Amino acid sequence: MSTLRKLQLGTDGPVVSAQGFGAMGISVAYGDTDLTEARATLEHAFELGVTLFDTADAYGFGDNERFLAPFFAAHRDELVIATKFGLRRLEDGTLDIRNDPDYVRTSADASLQRLGVDEIDLYYMHRRDPEVPLEDMVGAMAELVAAGKVKHLGLSEVTGDELAAAHAIHPIAAVQSEWSLFSRDIENQVVPTAARLGIAMVPYSPLGRGLLTGVNQVDPNAANDVRNTMARFQGANGEANQALLEPLRKIAAVRNTTVAQVALAWVHQRTAVWQTSVVPIPGTRSRTRVEENLKALDLTLDDSELAVLEPIAAEVTGARWHDPSFISSGRE
Ligand SMILES: NC(=O)c1ccc[n+]([C@@H]2O[C@H](COP(=O)([O-])OP(=O)(O)OC[C@H]3O[C@@H](n4cnc5c(N)ncnc54)[C@H](OP(=O)(O)O)[C@@H]3O)[C@@H](O)[C@H]2O)c1
């Protein structure tokens, strides 16, 4: 196993590779998956030094956790396993958010069973239901820590205020939210709050769900590719957003890197900007791409390159989520 740069999640959380691995796409969201290559990709990520692996009970109705179980069993002591509760797809295809304490408890037990482990290293609330008092939900999560079922707590897509209130109830090691050159709304409240409290940021979709790679990978006829329903990928929006990659292409050409590496390097450099750990979790089902993405850790963009990239987010067209109440900026 190689060694990558490491960062700590929160003041007493786990120390992990500065780039993690997002496993969602293996089971859901981005079209068909070659499971043999996906399994090899997990192993390759581990060989290259990745220690933080991200899943959720919602990814494929538990399929993603079940798929990861043998990989986790093979490397249990060397990995940090992160999973989530609180967001699920109902029979009719709609998404439902649950934060009530009973649901927290039963979801954790079900994830432990599917993952085949005694303890979840990092357990996130996936989405916030403001109808359930924060004390009740975080209280139930804290009971899981006391019971030895969970080591550290995380929250996904919370507002700055929700984060500060939750952290006062029980230490929060990490916040997971969408953060990339195309999605910077969390810099208004969430990131400053996390930085002030010493909480790590774990950016999801750091490659903009593939947009920030410059590689067109969406089959417009694929019903199992969620990007066919996302505003950023549609028609004129999609074309306008592709055009925003021009500065990344230029930097990539000069630096002899790829567009994806430039996009990820920008995210990695948020650690220095905000003085708190920033550990993106790009997702891929390909060994060559995981290798490519990890090389972003060797790329440091200079001030003039960063200045060129600065205006891009403001020019992106199309919301990052169809229902604003599902994401932090919709509740701020
Ligand atoms: N908390 C939440 O609500 C939430 C929401 C979304 C995601 N997440 C987590 O965050 C992780 C990452 O986010 P994401 O998967 O949505 O988006 P992402 O990492 O921004 O992008 C993934 C997409 O980019 C492609 N890709 C990856 N590396 C590439 C490269 N070097 N060149 C070209 N294409 C490349 C992947 O295709 P291939 O797989 O075919 O390589 C996939 O289609 C997920 O796996 C999940 O664990 C959390």
Account of the protein in words:
- The protein has 332 residues and is an alpha/beta fold.
- 40% of the residues lie in helices and 14% in strands.
- The chain has one domain (6-210, 265-297): TIM Barrel.
- A 7-stranded parallel sheet has the order 3-4-5-8-9-10-11, with helices on one face.
- The site of NADP nicotinamide-adenine-dinucleotide phosphate has 30 residues, from α1 and α12.
Total of DSSP H or I helical runs spanning 4+ residues: 15
Spell the H/E element sequence. Answer: EEEHHEHEEEHEHEHEHEHHHHHHHH
**Rg:** 19 Å
CATH homolog superfamily = NADP-dependent oxidoreductase domain
Reported CATH architecture: Alpha-Beta Barrel
CATH class: Alpha Beta
Question: Span between N and C termini?
Answer: 42 Å
Bound molecules: NADP nicotinamide-adenine-dinucleotide phosphate
Strand content: 5-15%
Largest sheet: 7 strands, parallel
Structural class: alpha/beta
| Helix content bin | 40-55%
CATH T-level topology: TIM Barrel
Low-pLDDT runs of 5+ residues are: none
Total domains:
1
Strand order of the largest sheet: 3-4-5-8-9-10-11
Total number of strands: 11
Global outline: globular
